[in-house]
Design goal:
Length: about 170
């Protein structure tokens, strides 16, 4: 009886991020993350290796992807709930989706996602180097600059269980 109650409790605990877990893949061994630059709105090149010391969620998205647009507000909430914890969210889209840099900023403002750091990926090179050809897709990078896993598809980023799970991954994998 106690086993059944314990199992039921664990199932309920983990149900909050079941959607994320279905597309979640944590690697047995970390991989070196590509060092292909992404670009700020001002045109400054940044490589993931320059952000060592932070636990990164590199979120590949597209303005033409309805699920991506739908979760922008939730990602913004996630960013605010996890700020100053060593977790950094990088929103990355292909550069050819934007006529001018301000266009991306305006879209993020429209969908209440103004606290997310956003970048462009020239010709989709970083996404290609990761082997990512669909969105939304999140790459998890540890503090050493190594890829530890991925999440394919959407996630309920506002869910406290999801946030706790990301904290757990950060603690376990650096």
């Amino acid at each position: 009886m106690i086993k059944k109650i314990l199992i039921l409790g664990l199932l309920l605990l983990w149900s909050g991020f079941a959607a994320a877990k279905s597309g979640l893949n944590i690697f047995a061994y970390p991989r070196e993350a590509p060092q292909t630059p992404i670009y700020t709105a001002e045109g400054k090149a940044i490589k993931l290796g320059e952000l060592k010391g932070q636990f990164l969620l590199v979120m590949f998205w597209s303005r033409y992807c309805a699920p991506c647009i739908k979760e922008l507000d939730e990602i913004n909430t996630f960013v605010n709930k996890t700020k100053d914890t060593g977790i950094e969210v990088l929103l990355v889209s292909k550069d050819d989706e934007w006529t001018i840099p301000e266009e991306q900023e305006e879209l993020l403002k429209k969908y209440k996602a103004t606290d997310i750091k956003y970048y462009t990926d020239k010709n989709g090179k970083l996404a290609g180097d990761f082997g990512i050809f669909s969105s939304p897709h999140t790459v998890l990078v540890n503090k050493a600059g190594e890829e530890i896993g991925r999440i394919s598809g959407t996630v309920d980023w506002e869910d406290d269980d999801v946030i706790e799970y990301i904290y757990k991954l950060k603690a376990e994998h650096g």
